[in-house]
């Protein structure tokens, strides 16, 4: 079992996550959606304790931690089981794609340089970038840079891959290659949590959609249910707001 139970996060008097519990679907993409301020990114960042909950438990495989009394050793153990892909690519400008992927293996895992680079090249091949292993970030498109970020995360062999708005910094024509990469990884059985506000991307890549509002889950459904005629009125209102904001008719999603 992997997931969270009873998570509470507050900023002052505002409850960002309000006694939230969620079991992840193993080997698939769970997308977390909602309006701005709903708690999406906070939930994602709780999984690797970039955001420290005030209460609740986090479970990844056979490791369960109580966030109210977590030790440094437990923080390290939890972070070794997760890896994050960020909205901004966060690549080292003066390192090649292979060196960017190898860096975490060397620093965090303690793997020697030669073996780390071999592993890095294998993971770049996994995301279709073997021909660009020696390229620097400035020589890569935004979509390619994000795929390097995905390869870097995968190289750490996480139990859970966390993706925080992985396409929002990309031009629309580059989203497809990242979508294809994430689909391919999901097909290989990688458990993922995706936070995104792009409904077309969510519908295409996820097996399950969790809709947050005011720090609580108000819908948890398959994509065909979430976007279907049987969706709740609040879900339909959220999608109407999305259509209006983006100028897209419903059938395009």
Explain what you see.
With 253 residues, this protein is an alpha/beta fold. It has two domains: 1-81 and 161-221, P-loop containing nucleotide triphosphate hydrolases (Rossmann fold), CATH 3.40.50; 90-157, no CATH class. It has nine helices and ten strands. The protein has helices spanning 40-47, 72-79, 97-107, 113-126, 142-155, 172-187, 199-205, 223-226, 233-246; strands spanning 3-11, 14-23, 29-33, 55-60, 63-66, 82-85, 160-164, 191-195, 208-213, 216-221. The strands form two sheets. A six-stranded mixed beta sheet has the order 6-7-8-3-9-10, with helices on both faces. A four-stranded antiparallel beta sheet has the order 2-1-4-5, with helices on one face. The longest helix is centred in the last third of the chain and has 16 residues, at 172-187. It is globular, with a radius of gyration of 18 Å. The protein starts with a strand and ends in a 7-residue tail after the last helix.
What is the gist of this entry?
The chain has 253 residues and is of the alpha/beta class.
